[in-house]
Design brief:
By secondary structure, this protein is mostly helical. The protein contains 7 helices and 3 strands, in the order αβααββαααα.
Length: 166
């Protein structure tokens, strides 16, 4: 088939029972039902036996939900996100709202990364300080930790040591 054809991948045509969908996405059946209850996912059809049958697009939707959860969105926030999308009168307005949400999440993620980098620095500094404590004499007491001037310490310890030593 050439470019611009309406070729649809074969797996998106296959209908999946809820258990098959759960297995394919690594979710539980209960999680899939919860997504449906929240309006995040809908079965394509119901079988004659009243089984929910999902299209291959449901796999993408669950992957999308998982990605948003990985980004820190709650299911309630994802539901609101979808409601905003569906209630937008035009594509540019819908995309502007999505862009705003993702921009906010990017800023929040960058702030989290910066905070975690500071924590990495604190832990690295503390562990380096504590490395010299390995050769401390058993005659020293914990009360001296954080204020000692031996083994290259200058009487000051990183907060993570000073705080525990009081």
């Amino acid at each position: 088939m050439g470019e611009g054809s309406n070729h649809v991948p074969a797996d998106s045509l296959a209908l999946l029972k809820v258990g098959e969908l759960a297995k394919r996405t690594g979710k539980t059946v209960r999680a899939v039902h919860l997504y449906e209850e929240l309006g995040l996912l809908a079965p394509a059809v119901r079988s004659k036996g009243n089984f929910r049958l999902y299209s291959g697009k449901a796999v993408k939707r669950i992957d999308w939900i998982q990605k948003l959860q990985d980004l820190g969105f709650s299911l309630t926030e994802i539901k609101a996100f979808l409601r905003d999308w569906e209630e937008s009168a035009a594509a540019p307005k819908a995309m502007a709202r999505v862009r705003e949400i993702f921009s906010d999440k990017l800023r929040e993620t960058q702030e989290t990364i910066a905070r975690l980098e500071r924590l990495v620095g604190d832990l690295t500094e503390t562990l380096a300080y504590m490395d010299s404590c390995r050769s401390c004499e058993p005659t020293h007491t914990q009360a001296e930790c954080g204020t000692c001037g031996i083994h290259g310490h200058d009487g000051r310890a990183p907060l993570l040591v000073e705080g525990i030593a009081k």
